[in-house]
Amino acid sequence: MRILSTFLILFLFVSVSFGQIKFEKGYIITNDHKRVECFIKNLDWKNNPADFIYKLTELSAPEMGNLASVREFGISKSFRFVNAEVKIDRQTKPAVNPKNEAIPVWTKEKLFLRVISEGKAKLYSYESNRLKRFFYSLNDSSVTQLIYLEALNGTTLVKNTSYQQQLWGNLRAPMATMNSIKAIGYNEKELTAYIQEYNGDSGTSTSPLVQTKRRAYFNLKFAPGLNISSVSLSTVLDGSNKAFQSTFDSKPTFRLGLESELILPFNNYHWGILFEPTFQSYQSEVEGKYGTSTITYSSIEFPIGLRYYYPLNDNTRLFLNGLIIPAASMNLNSKIEYHTFFANMTDVKTVDVASSGSAALGGGVEHKRFSLETRYYTSRNLFSGQPSESANYSRFSVVLGYKFLKTRFK
Description:
By secondary structure, the protein is mainly beta. The chain has 3 domains: 18-76, no CATH class; 82-213, no CATH class; 217-408, Porin (Beta Barrel). The chain has helices at 2-18, 162-170, 178-182, 188-201; strands spanning 23-30, 35-41, 51-55, 63-66, 70-75, 79-89, 95-96, 106-117, 121-128, 131-138, 144-146, 149-153, 156-160, 217-236, 243-263, 271-275, 278-287, 291-301, 304-311, 316-325, 330-331, 335-342, 345-352, 358-367, 370-381, 390-408.
């Protein structure tokens, strides 16, 4: 436990000291229309921010920008947010409406909208958890929401696709037809393509914002390692009221995992979802006051969890992960045997292993394709469901990883 505590303190200290998200060269436009070159902390926001952090120089103190002080901010070829006062419908679930209507419920708000495409017509987006809305403006006029929402009439889903009428009435491209506009979905890809078509065909200069589309990554990692394992045993012997308690020695054992990792496409790829089927085994024997007990434990468990990365440079990053190990696992002929001695007689009792769930906390460093991690597990009862017996399995692991597959979703 002392080793674990020391490691975690050191890890957190190094993470805070060196693992900060980078400030990137950008700009802000203040409310008095002054453009200021600066460095912006790029959080690669999934949801539109209400504020952000920036520095006037790389060495200056961080400052806060928000809707009250900033008209616009951005980083070239990454993002651009503009401050706009808009009417927005925030309904996320289909409303129950017996009149077969899906009606917007408007609120007036100041928001930072992400600029998707520019030109005579501009396209913007706003995202907040499950809410996704698109807006447009024409010739620098006020910003208006493109309307799409759903309602339920009994089991019938009613859709309000007024955005298609808005495109037809206000943003009609020369070659557009009603059928072609009806085919446009309420999503960024199709709306962006149409707005760029409208800007290009109208003869105005266009400047679609260059953005790298974020895609999730999938990694596979070979993860062998070493467990330092021990078992603390407690039971009541058959035919007596005598408690049998013993502790099996801590010993190193081999473990082998295959880690699947989904790197999420936001916050600069700092978050990952893990799934790591792992084989492990442990065998030991101990003599107690009333006899000898032996354990043979082999299993394949299926941990699932989250990982957070702290980049140090382009090739190296620290990480911290938390895992849940479900009770459901594959126990491979695992058992504990008691050999007890009474009145010159030997009694053998065998108990099959049925594990409870547990959790784990780990952290380490990754350099290119290789990683090294230390991981602490909470104890796991191998006699789950047996109230008079317990066998608490504890371990501390050192895991070496090699990433042999990295692929990006299209």
